[in-house]
Write the structure tokens for this entry.
Amino acid sequence: MLALERGRTVPGVVRLGLAVIVFGIVADLVTHLSFADADAVGGHTPAQLSAHAIVFAGMVLVIAGVIADGIRQSAARRVRPGNHPPTGDT
């Protein structure tokens, strides 16, 4: 589940991925509801397989966006002024 800190927005790549997933789901529903099974390969038509691939690509974009945002936040915390790493000198 995507948990956001207060005041944070959803990263752009994640938004794009979510839009691709929604598009893929709609395409998947349309292809599964059509009854044109003449070109079925292994139980699925090429259009159904394409729709599944679109949803998968959207999932990859969401994961990539979450990972990239986490790396960016981690790097920003390391270089923030006043956030000094422990030196071992006390």
About this structure: The two ends are 41 Å apart (CA to CA). Residues 12-79 form one domain. The longest helix spans residues 46-79.
